[in-house]
Amino acid sequence: MDEIELSGGNMQPVVRVGETVRRVAGEWTPAVHALLERLESAGIAEAPRALGFDDRGREILSYIAGDVLEDSSALWSDEVLIAAGRLLRRIHDASVVLAGDDTLVWRSARRAPAQVVCHNDFATYNLIARDDRLVGVIDFDFASPGPRLWDLAYLAYRIVPFVSDAQDVGDLDRGARLSALVEAYGIPFTRSEVLTAAADRLDDLRAFTLDRAAETGRVDFIEHAEMYGRDAAALRAMTTMT
Fold it and tell me: Which residues form the Aminoglycoside phosphotransferase domain (predicted)?
């Protein structure tokens, strides 16, 4: 079948072949497939299914039809925000059994406390919407054990949103949306806890992005890193107002 390159493959190319997705495999892939199989067993239909490997050694995943949330008219929908918080909680809860398995090799570093397996990029550009509903989440390649708040805080940064390059935000009530997201997740983290964790997450992302800029020479990575630095400072300033 023809291969159609999909957007978002910043690390390696990602292609669609029929109703499957093919992407470069690595030493981390068995751990990611173990996670996806665990999510399937837990009845989480919004995650891709691991379907093995093709004759080129690439992993095969099921394709989730729809639009990336960032490109959807439902981007700032309250219903999607709540659905995203609930989906993240379901994924985290299903992953607990793998979080303490030291035999699994992950692409990203483990972070303490290793409460769950974090997606590590659970954001609007990896969420899939169809008919204005959240139907999926993709890109589990960088998953690794870590604290629940690591994922939830970054989701808040992207979907509340607090990211400074968010488009067409209008007059969203960010305080109310943050409260709704935390309530949907179902653990009563405080506003200060979420904002502080989001700022820490951006520090980590800034360092990672600068490393990628050095490796690739891409100017846009430098621009993104600068934004993460500014946004982390803004989030920390917000915590003093709570």
Answer: 109-172
